[in-house]
Every structure is written in C-alpha cells, then in structure tokens.
What we know:
- The structure holds 2 protein chains of 2 kinds.
- Chain A has helices spanning 2-38, 40-43, 61-66, 70-76, 101-111, 124-133; strands at 78-84, 87-93.
- Chain A is mainly α.
- In chain A, a hairpin with a 2-residue loop joins strand 1 and strand 2.
- The longest helix of chain B has 21 residues, at 2-22.
- The mean pLDDT of chain B is 89.
- The chains are: A mainly alpha, B alpha+beta.
Amino acid sequence: MKKSIVFLVLISSFFGVALSCNDGTKTYREGAILYETHCESCHMADGTGLEALYPPLAQSDMLRVMGATTACAIVNGMEGKIIVNGVEYDNKMLPIKGLSTVEVTNIINYINHAWGNENQFVPLQAVQKALEDCSPQK
Amino acid sequence: MKTGLAIALMLILLVGCDQQNKRTLPKLGNRPLVERVVDGKTIVDTVDHQVADFAFRNQDSTLITEKTVAGKIYLADFFFTSCFTICPKVKKNMKRIYDKYQGSPDLLILSHSIDYRYDTVGRLAWYADKFNIKSDNWHLLTGSYDELLRMSYQYLLTAKEDDEAPGGFDHSGSIALIDRQRHIRGMYDGTDTASVNQLMLDIELLLQE
C-alpha cells in the first residue's frame, strides 16, 4: 500500500515535470515564431540589432532590467534617446499591433532567454499588470 | 586501364579549370536598338544597356553624378530610413561589403532613399552617423521623386510610392552590381545572406576585369 502511494506520487510528479517542461518549450517556440514575424526585421535573427540604429536584444543591459515593462515597449512602441550597452540610440520603434497578452508574454520570455540571455522569467500576470500600468503612449 | 583513368581525370580537371577561367558576368537589361552606318549602309543593331546619367545629393549635401562613379564598380539599391520591413536586414548585409572594401578607391555603394520628402540631406546624415558609414565609399542619396523613379527603372529595381505598402513605399530588397562602364552585371537579394555572399564573389570577379 505505502509502496504504491510512493509510486503514484513519483509517477505523477514525473508527469508534472514532463508536462511543465513541454509547456516551456512550446511557449518558447511560439515566442521564437512571433519574434521572427514581429521583431526580427529590426533587431535581427541573432538579436544583435544594427549599429546605433536598432539596439541589440542579445546581452542588452536595458532588456535585462525591463522585466514585465518590456510589454509596454512592444505594445506602445518606444521613442527617444536611450542608452543600451553604452551606445546612444535615438530612433523610433512603432507599436506592434494585434498581439494578445499571452503572445506578448511568450515573446518576452523568448528574448529573455534566446542568444545566451539569462534574464528573469516573466509570468503572464506580471505582463497583465504592467500593461495596465504602462504610461500612456507618448 | 590505368592510363585511361588518368586521362579521364585530366580531362575533368581541364574542363573544370576552363569553366572557372571563363566565368564572366552577363550584361543585364534591355538592349536598345541603334542605327549605325557600316560601309555606307545604315543598319540597325542593338547595344548593351548602360545606366543613364544622374544627379543626386548625398548625406554631406555633395552632388553625386555619373562622374562620381566613372571607372568604378558600384552597387545600387533603394531604401528609406524609416523602413521597418526588409531594409534593416539589407543594410546589415551590405555593411559586410562596406567593411570589406572601406577605403578602396574601386568600389562605391549608392543607396537611394525613395522617401524623398522625409529623408532630407539632414536625415540621411543622421542615418549615416548612426549606421557608422562614411561617404568615401557609401553615398546615401536623395533627389526629386521623378529622378528617383527614373533611375529605379535604369537599375531594374522597383521603387515607388504606394499607399498600400508598409511605410508608404513599395521597393525591392535587391542590389544591382554595376561595372566600370555602367553596365548592370548582376542582381542580388539583399535580404538573403547566401545571395550577398555570391555578390561578394562577383565583385572580386569584376574587379579583375
């Protein structure tokens, strides 16, 4: 009896881990596809951007500290002087239209972990909250 | 048997060498009809398409004409600074070529902005600065819409106003390779790394012509 309970717990935790893993790779892949469609033209497939025109996302010190507020940049766009890895950018990123909150979350978690990035995981709830709090578009 | 094999091998080698030496780039474009007088008789003949004369301003407000490219090999393309579809990728690929030939007197790049209203000389200067390129080898050009349109036909490149297109302009991501006599010798997809690699090989070939 005891044995079978232990077995059950083990089995279910195994499946639980397997499922969550699977879920992780699925959303990551979804993020990758969305990135290709909506971001790659400017930030490039390898996330390196283009000179001082389009900032990098790979190893970007700015992205590292943006967390859930990255959602605001994606949904509302971004404009004006910013400094990324010591380089000044003064360009304009247009709002990316038509993305659901889940899709925005998947993109954020993709760019936070692609190209060797080791930024924090951003949960859906945090993105929802951030989008409510975004300063209205300038 | 052995000698037969050796001869066959040599033949293959010979043919291979031959083909390598012979690779020349075609001359592209419509061949206009011309009338010539030969032995007192007027005959109709065709000639290679030669890119017409032009006049644009670059990022330093310098006048750039056919004289600027005289005797040089150059690349021509159309873009605009606020383009967010294919342009950044094309520019990133072209930057590789620029980096390789920077300082060379033999190779120039002429990037024409089709956004003739917004991309003023000042805006092009901003772009050149942020893109980290110099007008020694790379000219960002602006001019009247008519002149831009006329030259897009000359280079066999699409570039025109189109309200339906993203950003308001329809233009191709292709790059034209022009030889020292202003003949078009190749067209390449600037968004495609492999195609741009081929372009770099073809530039070497033209430099030796």
